């Protein structure tokens, strides 16, 4: 039986007007009423009304051919799409050679990590090379940026500065300057007057990013966008922002350390397993071609409780020293304190040492730290962590010039790790003469000159071959 709403008393059928629908811009989830939070991906502010069937929105139809007709792929000129070096070698390493014309790079990181300082240095280097650079800041005043530029010596006539937070004004500055490089700091502070919402909202970030990307592609202007991050370290704003840009880089670093690491999590023009290392100081930020020296302090002066390992940051090997201190505890629950080491991995290694090697640690406080603020969280540091802890417990230093590589299993076995050849080459370059590695990790022809490789199958064997002369009574 038809309802009165669809079949009135006169017998004529009346079509009910289509109800409006709402769709999430992040995941495509639909609902019949507006909600502030998507019920599928839990994103806030991403649900908006969409035109229903039979609405006013017309179907897209074919238009006249574009200005650039389709051509065979073999006739496309690739010289204009070659990467141009930025002058910062560590940044070029991560980007895959430099900035590609028309490419849009999103650089994200925590506050105070050095994003603006790095990009201001890159802009100044490009300006000294004869290219026009437009630096748009939406967070600071021109005077503040000028003071930073003076401190890092980034003043140049070809570097133009604009403090704007309106998208229309930013596009007007681009028309006026016609830059060869555009830097926007940051995309969350720019807003469009044609879109509702506060700056940094989902709709605003999407509109600003889309406009700047379209401008970069149309005029072949390499563009760098600075992005904010949330409390958990992810990039603030809609997830589509990362899909729209060509390169996504994460700038990481501990505020108590001068070391900064730049990683590419997405790169359409290069690798995503490269890492750039920088040293941030009061005079600016410089690239570190050899950062291993920052993480090693006792190459010659060996003391109990220290062991060096080689970690892989992307494809770059970094020598890292692990220090351990074991002292009798007066507490019912002994302390387990770490810095730069995963606490869960330390707990596992301590359990294996006590069960498989017989080291008594249940009544001992254990403190483990890395040198220089490095983070050693990959499984390959397990063996060095175990040897440093046992060395501190027995008060016996390890062999001089030794490094340890390997993952420790719960049964006490030493498991192979990836990139052993690169790790050993880095250790040999730094002057290490002995290396403890899992069995079968290195081929006879892959051993660096002047280095003795000691292959071990389990933790007990590793302790035996790495122990040095006893300096104190047990």
From TrEMBL:
Would I find Zinc among this entry's keywords? yes
Residue ranges with Low complexity bias: 56-72
Q: Which UniProt keywords apply?
A: ATP-binding, DNA damage, DNA repair, DNA-binding, Hydrolase, Metal-binding, Nucleotide-binding, Stress response, Zinc, Zinc-finger
Looking up Gene3D superfamilies in the UniProt record yields: 3.30.230.10, P-loop containing nucleotide triphosphate hydrolases (3.40.50.300)
User: What biological process terms from GO does the record include?
Assistant: recombinational repair
- Start and end residues of each RecA family profile domain: 80-229
Please give one Gene Ontology molecular function term for this protein. Answer: ATP-dependent DNA damage sensor activity
State where ATP binds.
109-116
Q: Where is this region: Lon-protease-like?
A: 365-474
Task: List the GO cellular component terms.
Answer: cytosol
Q: Show the InterPro entries listed in the entry.
A: AAA+_ATPase (IPR003593), DNA_repair_RadA (IPR004504), P-loop_NTPase (IPR027417), RecA_ATP-bd (IPR020588), Ribosomal_Su5_D2-typ_SF (IPR020568), Ribsml_uS5_D2-typ_fold_subgr (IPR014721), Rubredoxin_2 (IPR041166)
Q: Where is this motif: RadA KNRFG motif?
A: 266-270
Q: Where is this region: Disordered?
A: 47-72
The UniProt function text for this chain reads: DNA-dependent ATPase involved in processing of recombination intermediates, plays a role in repairing DNA breaks. Stimulates the branch migration of RecA-mediated strand transfer reactions, allowing the 3' invading strand to extend heteroduplex DNA faster. Binds ssDNA in the presence of ADP but not other nucleotides, has ATPase activity that is stimulated by ssDNA and various branched DNA structures, but inhibited by SSB. Does not have RecA's homology-searching function.
Similarity comment text for this entry: Belongs to the RecA family. RadA subfamily.
State the name under which the record lists this protein.
Answer: DNA repair protein RadA
Provide the organism lineage as a comma list. Bacteria, Bacillati, Actinomycetota, Actinomycetes, Micrococcales
């Amino acid at each position: 039986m038809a309802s009165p709403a669809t079949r009135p008393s006169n017998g004529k059928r009346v079509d009910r007007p289509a109800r409006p629908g709402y769709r999430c811009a992040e995941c495509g989830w639909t609902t019949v009423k507006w909600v502030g939070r998507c019920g599928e991906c839990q994103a806030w502010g991403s649900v908006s009304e969409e035109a229903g069937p039979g609405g006013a929105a017309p179907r897209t139809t074919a238009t006249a051919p574009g200005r650039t007709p389709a051509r065979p792929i073999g006739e496309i000129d690739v010289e204009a799409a070659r990467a141009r070096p930025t002058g910062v070698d560590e940044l070029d390493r991560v980007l895959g050679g430099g900035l590609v014309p028309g490419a849009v790079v999103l650089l994200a990181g925590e506050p105070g990590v050095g994003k603006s300082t790095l990009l201001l240095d890159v802009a100044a280097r490009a300006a000294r090379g004869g290219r026009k650079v437009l630096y748009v800041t939406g967070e600071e005043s021109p005077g503040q940026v000028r003071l930073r530029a003076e401190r890092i010596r980034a003043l140049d006539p070809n570097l133009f500065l604009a403090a704007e937070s309106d998208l229309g004004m930013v596009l007007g500055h681009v028309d006026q300057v016609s830059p060869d490089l555009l830097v926007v700091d940051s995309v969350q502070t720019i807003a469009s007057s044609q879109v509702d919402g506060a700056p940094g909202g989902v709709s605003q970030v999407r509109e600003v990013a889309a406009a700047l990307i379209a401008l970069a592609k149309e005029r072949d202007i390499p563009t760098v966008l600075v992005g904010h991050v949330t409390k958990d370290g992810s990039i603030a704003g809609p997830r589509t922002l990362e899909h729209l840009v060509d390169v996504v880089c994460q700038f990481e670093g501990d505020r108590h350390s001068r070391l900064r690491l730049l990683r590419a999590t997405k790169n359409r023009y290069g690798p995503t397993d490269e890492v750039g290392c920088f040293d941030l100081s009061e005079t600016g930020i410089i690239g570190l071609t050899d950062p291993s020296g920052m993480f090693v302090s006792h190459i010659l002066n060996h003391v109990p409780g220290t062991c060096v390992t080689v970690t892989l940051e992307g494809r770059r090997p970094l020598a890292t020293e692990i220090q351990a201190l074991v002292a009798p505890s007066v507490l019912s629950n002994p302390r387990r304190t770490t810095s730069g080491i995963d606490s869960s991995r330390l707990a596992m290694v301590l359990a294996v040492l006590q069960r498989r090697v017989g080291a008594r640690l249940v009544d001992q406080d254990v403190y483990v730290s890395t040198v220089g603020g490095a983070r050693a969280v990959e499984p390959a540091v397990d063996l060095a962590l175990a040897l440093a802890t046992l060395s501190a417990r027995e008060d016996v230093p390890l062999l001089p010039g030794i490094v340890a590589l390997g993952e420790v299993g719960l049964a006490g076995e030493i498991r192979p790790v990836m990139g052993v050849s690169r790790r050993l080459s880095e250790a040999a370059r730094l002057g290490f003469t002995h290396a403890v590695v899992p069995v079968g990790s290195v081929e006879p022809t892959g051993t660096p000159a002047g280095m003795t490789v000691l292959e071990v199958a389990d933790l007990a064997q590793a302790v035996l071959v790495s122990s040095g002369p006893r300096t104190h009574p047990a």
